[in-house]
Amino acid sequence: MEPVLPTFIIVGAARSGTTTLYRWLMEHPDVYMSPVKETNYFTSDLVSLNGPGDKQAIVSELPRIRTGNGGFKETHAAIISALVDYCALFRAGRSYNIRGECSPSYLYYARYAAERIKQRIPKCKIIIFLRDPIERAFSNYKALLASGREHLSFEEALASTKQRMRKGWEHFWDYLGLGLYYEQVKYYLETFSEKQVGIWLYEDMVSAPSLVMQQVFRFIGARDNVYIEPRAYNVSPSKVSSVRLWVRRHKLATHTAKYFMPKLVRRHISEILDSWFSKEITLQQETRKWLLDFYKDDILKLHALLPRLRVTRWIEIQERRIHGN
Hints:
The chain is α/β, with parallel strands linked by helices. The chain has helices spanning about 20-25, 55, 85-90, 105-110, 110-120, 135-145, 155-165, 180-190, 200-205, 210-220, 240-250, 250-260, 265-275, 285-305, 310-320; strands at about 10, 30-35, 35-40, 75, 100, 125-130, 195-200, 240, 280.
């Protein structure tokens, strides 16, 4: 019997609407999505878990996410290293002609992942979503900050990126490298045919979600007239509570609260504390300018590669923000 594999893969970029797209596709009657959003199968040899909270964020053993009936729980991220386990995630979708998964590590490790995907699933379609790399990096930071894993300021975290990656922290900590799209995208365009690679911008998903949704549906061969509410998922917070961060960083306090307080009580207390102690997370103008200088050349090369996407709008928007326009 032929192994059951995906017919398309969302390869990234991280913090560029991939979770939202994954959720939309889960609702489409023609499409079967892996219950584990990020399988990391094609990068399983590369993903390290030495950073704070990495092992909790990415489940490393498939048996831990199995249900009693032999299926799988919906899980955000895992490291699936065996083909038999990877195929098991799609077994329940055998009757579907369209099956997919979503692992942003595949774009980050494009040189390695693109070739592995091509070898295993040569006719696979590749979906890439890109976002202004400055906004992507800051959203990445806010997500890790809100989860209690990040404890540095954004500027300190940027300066620590190389050191953290040398220590084997997972790729989600590479605030800068995750947004260097040119080489990443080029590997996929060189590995797969033009018809197999679909590329969209996060900004277009936000401004015209239904249109982008229809385009993606058509690209993977699904009906494009199915209505799915264009809700956004996994959006980074604009504010973070200092009390909530303290609780998340002190595991004993977290476990104590869960033991003594019902979930509704904990939620009510959290809402009160958030209203009292939350503060806005803002991107400093000097940092914005530094990031624009860092990414500008890569953006221009990406524009030369894919002029139809008009990614130079990222530069124009950032320059207006820097100059207060």
